[in-house]
Amino acid sequence: MTEVLLDRIPYARFLGLEAVRNGDDLLVTMPFADHLIGNPLLPALHGGSTAALLELTATARAAIAFPTLRQPRPINVTVSYLRSGRPEPVYCRARILRAGKRVAHVVAEAWQDDPDQPIASLTANFLLDETD
To answer: Measuring CA to CA, which residue among 57, 45, 64, 44 is closest to residue 12?
Structure first.
């Protein structure tokens, strides 16, 4: 489901996102590519690509947790940029903190070398609709 979900999203394909699923756990990798650079003077990854990685990982995580429902839709998303992303692969993992019948609260973190030193984090609420 998750691999198919990310393959269906054109921007996820543009970013080159790769998902590895281990049970309910999901690790998404965004390999480095030159088109992901936002500031060539540093060079640093573009904040939009980092935010998209976080949001797509959180969406995929919610889709894993609620497989009978259609794709979760974001209600609100907050991204915190903690440090500049270097021109190297970025890894992301999300977890559901709380879920009800209609809404799931998900957090995600993106890092490069050390998961304990994230480059960005996301907090989001997703609407969980029943399948049509």
So the answer is: 57
Within a domain: residue 132? no
Q: How many domains does the chain have?
A: 1
16 in a structural domain: yes
pLDDT in tens, 86-109: 999 999 999 999 998 899 999 999
What are the strands, taking DSSP E only, across the chain?
18-22, 25-30, 37-39, 44-45, 73-81, 90-99, 103-111, 120-127
Show the tokens assigned to 103. 């809404």
DSSP string, 3-27: HHHHHH-HHHHHHT-EEEEETTEEE
Q: Please, are residues 115 and 91 in contact by the beta-carbon 8 Å criterion?
A: yes
Specify if 21 maps to a domain. Answer: yes
Which CATH number does the domain housing residue 91 bear?
3.10.129.10
Classified as helix, coil or strand, 46 is coil
